[in-house]
Amino acid sequence: DALEELERYFSEVNTLSGQFIQETSDSTGAVVETAEGEFFIARPERFVWDYSLPYEQQIVADGQQLWVYDVDLDQVVVRPLGEALGVGAAQLLSGDIDSLSASFEIQIGDNDDVLLKPTDPAWAFQEIRLQFSQGIPQRMEIADGMDQTVTVEFEEVIVNPSIPDRRFEFVVPDGVDVIEGS
Amino acid sequence: CATKPPMPMEEQIEVLDLDQWSAPARPAHWTLTGRAALEAGDEAGSASVQWAQSADQYRLALRGTLGVGNLDLRRDNDEVVLKTGDGKTYVARDARELLQAVTGVDWPVEILRYWVTGHAAPWLSGQARVNASGQLIELRQNDWVIQYDRYQVINGYELPGRIWAEGEGSKVRLAVRNWTIEE
Description:
Radius of gyration of chain A: 16 Å
Shape of chain B: globular
Number of helices of chain A: 3
Strand order of the largest sheet of chain B: 1-8-9-10-13-14-2-3-4-5-6-7
Strand order of the largest sheet of chain A: 7-8-9-10-11-1-2-3-4-5-6-12
Radius of gyration of chain B: 17 Å
Structural class of chain A: mainly beta
Structural class of chain B: mainly beta
Largest interface: A-B, 38 and 32 residues
Strand content of chain B: over 45%
Strand content of chain A: over 45%
Distance between the termini of chain B: 54 Å
Largest sheet of chain B: 12 strands, antiparallel
Number of strands of chain A: 12
Oligomer: heterodimer
């Protein structure tokens, strides 16, 4: 069942790469933004989540810090990875089952997906659903407290590819502002 | 006396007091979508932004990365309603105070609505720096400095593609992906 899939993911998958299509819909269900990009994951604690359309944003977790670079805005915000709850969903796939069950209540969702509810009250409004097949993530859905949802479809997923370490290193481009986020 | 070499064309900047500057036509009803970066104190983040403005009514939606940091701010007549990602709703009369109280970010939205289209807030004095082709490249009002570039013409209105506003310890940056003008 869905929980076995989750455990299988955390036991068999060490690295993962692929593309994603992300749809954001507002409280009426209307799609207000469609974005796409690529991702790389190396457990634990390293991932790259790069948006290419309709805007360019590079999110890199290098194991210690989380870098969020907004290309059009010439801005990089860097935070210690532990505090980077803003990308909780992406961090989810790069963590381990213990850290997951520490920060989420894990249940089986209604259409055989994994339903994750943050245990930290500050994030209690969020509900994350993860759909796997053969231990590979297919779909992630994040709902906020305003009935808005972000749905991420994973595509062309490669399990346990070899990914060079430098893929998870972030180099600050010149001419951008680097801000230490709290 | 040594004569200064003439500045190259694009650097010929004219500094004008606002009452001397003839601002371009300002659209009354517009919608922008793009990306916004906010920095206030040690709060910093970026989000997708959707902002629909018509006269004094507006609807501003900010959506952070992967569904975090969402915010919805509306003004209908003299009531401002703020909804935040955790499902809470706040009502007030002053949007700036409400936003600051709830999110800690100083977002002078009532003034920004003028700055964002490259115009001065009518009730504030200030200065405009205009380039040789008459485009506003910098505006100074209310201890804020607002810089503009990537102009584009939409329905006959010349509108900036990037707006960098900085003042009173806050920074707001907007990169507009598209402008829509409703006549």
